[in-house]
Specification:
binds (4S)-2,6-dioxohexahydropyrimidine-4-carboxylic acid, 28% helix, TIM Barrel, 6-stranded parallel β-sheet, Urease, subunit C, domain 1, 9-stranded mixed β-sheet
């Protein structure tokens, strides 16, 4: 049933919070009424009791590992965890097995999404050194973007041929999202670490191996190429203060070059390697407190346009391996919004900034059709949160297939109470209705 009357909510949208009733019919927001709504027929009613209603978050970077790596995660688990955490639409990365490098493989992923995703979904088309023709056949209206790894990470999808890169930046006909870390710099740093530590490289070396310099070299080169060719470039997971000078502050409208920050780079610092070890081994690495503070400031001033998760699960067995063998990445999609709301409680961000960076901005940046706002005529992707209902992240309340989280033991003050996906109640108090299916997101391009 996707007809709802949500009464007495504090609706947070476009920088304002207003008391309103929200009427949803056939999965679409029909009315947002500050004066209240008397009666409506054929709807299920929910009294929000003055709690906050947010537009569902849109996560522009997740790895749900399907097909081929489903021992780590799959779309059913990943999307359920997303919805439990208030994320109603995700954009998923191409470093699966096989890699998403042809239109046929891309459409196969969409079929997997249709079959098992509780959330709305989109899948990136992957770039390689050899698939440019295929890449350029991607439909901008039904696919979120193109993804290129300019530094290798899980899955070795490196695009490093200078001629190919030039072509890619010149020809890309929709958003080109890049993972920017300079491979030669990383290799050199790694060789030095091996010479010094042999088999036992301490995890604290990770941000020195995957260094600030490696990030700068690659992201500044990507920005230079984009400026030369007028590419619509989106630089993913910025992790250093220095890279921020590559981006313009202020509203994203009119920008050809945008940037994303991930929750882990806003949350952790290199001091956390001592207690968390490989569990917070990510590419790019979590770096210094100064880097984290600078990224937080850039989220506020607009040099960072969107906040995402880079949810990238591996099994506990994989994460327990020694540094050099341990894969980078960790699950976050269930806890991104609660973590950002925690940063709101800590007065790092306002509630309106959280909604801007996690819902509105990704919708505008990708031109997602009719999502990301609590607006009449838009899909009813909605999240009801209680900002004062403390809970603790524990193994028993994790929905990830991998069964662990880098923030187990963390107490959050805010809780996601309900999540609607296209008007369907997909989550109530952390219990996800696995029969709900999201839709393929489309794009106004
Ligand atoms: O830490 C990471 N893990 N960074 C990436 O870019 C890829 C991801 C993964 O797929 O495991």
């Amino acid at each position: 049933m996707n007809n709802w009357l949500i009464r007495d909510a504090r609706v947070v949208d476009q920088g304002r919070t207003v008391q309103a009733d929200v009427l949803v019919r056939d999965g679409v927001i029909e009315r947002v009424a500050t004066e209240g709504i008397g009666r409506a027929r054929g709807v299920q009613e929910l009294d929000a009791e003055g709690r906050h209603l947010l537009p569902g978050a849109i996560d522009d970077q997740v790895h749900f590992r399907e097909p081929g790596l489903t021992h780590k995660e799959d779309i059913a688990h990943g999307s359920a965890a997303a919805v439990a955490g208030g994320i109603t639409t995700f954009m998923e990365m191409p470093n699966t097995v096989p890699q998403t490098l042809t239109q046929e493989l891309l459409e196969q992923k969409y079929a997997l999404g249709a079959a098992s995703s509780v959330a709305n979904y989109s899948f990136y088309m992957g770039a390689s050194n050899t698939n440019l023709d295929e890449l350029l056949r991607t439909d901008p209206r039904t696919v979120c973007g193109l993804k290129a790894f300019l530094g290798s990470s899980t899955g070795n999808m490196l695009v490093d041929d200078p001629g190919t890169l030039d072509h890619l930046f010149k020809e890309a006909h929709l958003i080109l999202a890049v993972h920017a870390e300079d491979e030669p710099t990383i290799r050199r740093n790694m060789a030095e670490a091996v010479a010094k530590y042999g088999e036992n490289i301490p995890i604290a070396q990770h941000p020195l191996i995957r260094s600030a310099e490696a990030c700068w070299r690659s992201s500044s080169n990507a920005v230079k190429l984009a400026q030369e060719h007028g590419t619509r470039l989106h630089v993913l997971h910025i992790s250093t203060a220095r890279e921020l000078e590559l981006f313009e502050p202020g509203p994203m409208e009119g920008k050809r070059i945008t940037a994303e920050a991930c929750v882990h780079h806003l949350w952790f610092t290199d001091a956390d390697y001592a207690t968390k070890g490989n569990l917070i081994k990510w590419n790019p690495a979590v770096k210094t407190r100064e880097d984290r503070e600078a990224i937080r400031q850039a989220v506020r001033d607009g040099r960072i346009d969107v906040v995402a998760t880079d949810h990238a699960p591996h099994t506990m067995e994989e994460k327990a391996m020694p540094y050099a063998q341990c894969p980078s990445g960790g699950p976050l999609v269930q806890h991104a919004l609660p973590a950002m709301l925690e940063l709101m409680h800590q007065e790092v961000f306002t509630l309106e900034e959280v909604v801007e960076k996690m819902s509105h901005a990704p919708a505008r940046l990708f031109q997602v059709k009719d999502r990301g706002f609590i607006r009449e005529g838009f899909f009813a992707d909605l999240v009801l949160v209680d900002l004062d209902a403390p809970w603790t992240v524990e193994k028993k309340n994790l929905l990830y297939k991998c069964g662990w989280s880098p923030i187990e033991g963390q107490r959050f003050r805010s809780r996601v109470l309900r999540t609607w996906v296209n008007g369907q109640l997909a989550n109530a108090d952390g219990k996800v209705d696995n029969t709900v299916r999201g839709m393929r997101a489309t794009f106004d391009r």
